[in-house]
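The protein record quoted for completeness.
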Amino acid sequence: MALSIVASPFDVVFSAASSVKRSFLTFSDIFYRALEAKTLYAELADLSDEQLAVRGLKREEISQAVFAKVYDAR
């Protein structure tokens, strides 16, 4: 005898809505992290070498510092 599971229309709609919500939240998180990275990179790139040194950075380390702050910190 085979086991048959039937989902109600409400369950199907709820599951689809939950999936859409998760996808939207994932997209939003990715979008805002990228925006944060872009903003931080622009701010650091505008600093002089001396100002970067005060922050403990060299110009060639800006990309790695931005990545670490925006993506590794969460």
